[in-house]
Amino acid sequence: MKRRINYLRIDNLPIRYKLISLLLVITILPSIGLGSLIGWAVDRIMERQINENTFQLINQVNKTLEFYVSNMQNITYLVAFNPDVKRFLAEQKGIQGMNDDYSIRQFLQGLTTLYPEVAGILVVNRKGEYISNEMYARSPKPLTEETWYQEAVKNKGIFKIIGHPMHRNVITHANYTNKEVVSAVRAILNPNTQEVEGVVLIDLKLRVIAEATKNVRLGKWGYLMVIDHRGENIYIPAKPFIKEIPRQWFHGDFGAFSKKVHGQYLQFIYQRSPFTNWTTIGVFSNQESALEIKEIRFYVTSFVFFVCLFGIGSSYYLAYSLSRPISQLISFMKKVEAGDLTSRYHDDRADEIGVLGRNFNHMLDQIQRFISLAEWQERQRWEAELRSLQAHIKPHFLYNTLDTIQWMARKKGAEDIAEVVESLSKLFRIGLSKGKDIISFAEEIEHVQSYLSIQKTRYKDKLHYTFDIAPELQKLFVLKLVLQPIVENAIYHGIKQRRGPGHIWIQAEEQEGRLLIRVKDDGVGMSPEKLASLRESLSIGFTLGDTEKKMKNIKGYGMVNVQARLQLTFGNSYGLWIDSKEGQGTTVTIVHPIIRHIT
Amino acid sequence: MKKLVFIYVVLISAFILYLYHYHLEISRFRSFYQQEKALQGKMDEKYVMVTFQAGMDYWKRCLKGFEDAAQALNVSVEYRGATQYDVNEQVTVLEQVIAKKPAGIAVSAINPTALTETINKAVDKGIPVVLFDSNASGSKAFSFLGTNNYNAGVTAAHKMAELLGKRGKVAVITLPHQLNHQERTKGFLETIYQKYPQMEVVAVKDGKGDSLASKEAALEILNEYPDVEGIFATEANGGIGIGEAILSLENKKVKIISFDTDKRTLDMVKQGIISATLAQGTWNMGYWSLQFLFHLHHRLTPSLQSGYPLLPPYVDTGITVVTKANVENFYAK
Question: I want to staple B173 with a disulfide (CB 3.0 to 4.6 A). Which of A59, A245, A248, B238 is the partner?
Fold first, then answer.
């Protein structure tokens, strides 16, 4: 059944998608982050700079306004200093009578010559008589009843700005409307009595205020406006965002705030001039900075878009170039899994995937070599088996013949011959042992005893032998025909060449989970060279393919055969171990595994 | 690969959508705030009015017109002038103004020739100059806006004939050395002589532009020619002086025609002391001077081959006869 894959788990996501997402994350996320950071920083910096600039501009405008207002104040003093005016206020007739009026007019004309921003000057005494070039009363109602007059009296000689005049009984001949002027008054006091002698009224043309403030543009659509201490507009542009600003919005002499007016956010920055008591307010729409921020945001978005465009393409390509060899490797491995060991990974790339592929190739090479080695070893074993079988077919016939000979010998009373023949036949029977490889140790011992008894007949007293094998060890199973070749060697290369009788000891013991069978003789032994050459013959592994050739030159074919069979059957940790000293004899130890049952 | 193409198509179309949206929003925003500003200048364009006897009430109406035009065109104005009746002072003031390189200058020439050189200097520097009220006809100034003084004299003569029933002796009090007053006098004299044979101008006296001097001149005339029935004053102070003279003489019936509409003249018209006064288009002089200067500065009128802008070289700002019937209209509202 196919495994259900939960792609929500990151581990289950294909590497390609992981790579694409990783690349996208490291390209797009930082650019988005950077973009929003820039937007935020620009927003803050712009706001701060706008505020700073606006404060500076407001300050300049306030200074200009203060200049005009202080000029007006100076004019009121100049008027008060004039001796003709003094006389007029004190209600004294001058020496020239009517000419006082004329000279005051001339004097006032001089003032307006110097200050063209003044729309009109009017001097009124406490009787309500007035002198002015530009202004006159609308109705005969005395001017002392006017609010501006009262205001001047209330302020006791201190210059007072009224603002736009309203409902006053005074008009300028040049037709300046109330909205076009800002008026100010000052009462002239008698220095001795502190009584009000009269009032000077000055109208300042709003134009100069408008010029000073209109000249200042805040951004594209922002503007400055001026309000007086009562919150009434002194100057406001033609198309304002807001017509009147509530007084409660202002706190302190300067500051900034923002309010929502007619559905749009307006930013207000204001500063009050302590001298004029007017507040100059910068008004601009937040939308304007919003527009600029939008523009910046637009650039950032475009930037992010191009990063995305580039990032997706490149991450797709990179991920593909990374994941493609991996999937190639996977399909190649699947082929191998299906049994095709000859297929190889073909790519000369130098990165990790290339290394992985080459390592895999190397591993496949090794596996193939092991497989061929195993095949060769198997063949070797079979060949050895076959050889031993062939060696036993002939003795089978021989064994039957020997049986016949034995019976013939007994019939004729030749007991010794019968005995030898019996031993020989026993030897062959066990040697054949119905083709089994593994036989009981007891049988193996019997086989060797038969062999030895035959040899005893030949060598008589020259050969003596002793078995020293515990009965319980005899119940074990061993590989057949391992003892006989060793004993044969001991006789032919040890005892036979010795002068006098020789002895062979055959012992067995269990040691460290192994069965050690020792065949020891007191024959001539071997010279060290010979021993070394024999050991070398035995030590030639049977794992190497080229040993066939060497086998032909080796000495002691029987021993090597035993060694080969032991090692092929049980592995390299088992086999023969030879020790010999020249003139003292040889000991051959068979190292055999303990086998208690055969299956 | 198909997926990639799909993603690209989606991305690009999203971006195009965003672009379109952004463009739409920006243009909507712009159009919302864009104010149609036909004929709008900048506040740093400064136009200067230069006069003589700068404190004179007469100029205040001109200046008001100048200021009103500035308000309408969103530009700044400045008022400068010789403080006294002094040719050299006005030249100096004009030089100072030129040095500041204003956007345009409106000059009322104190005399027909004295300012010509300075005005030409300004025009050569590229500063538009127009003349108002008093002309300097030899200069390179682009236009003159003012009263046709000869016609004003003609109008005064007709009015006087109407008042006196086309017969009788009349006199003139004027400023004989000033061109505009000479022209007024000339218009008056020639009309009386040509059109009204039963009338006679018996005296032309110098009133010095002062009410006191004019009063004395009027008294002199009445003393010499007791049968004078009407006096024409070519300027406001003259009219007031004559009025005061008539008031000082009891039971003397002399028709007075004065000039301009200052407060005291209007009061006398209202009281019936002055029969009629001639109102000049002073506000119009100021207003249209600035309009002309604005057009020159912004090169709104096509130029002639010589590079000389196409503007009316002479604009008559007109004369209105003010009598008791319509005097209320001339008071400030």
Answer: B238
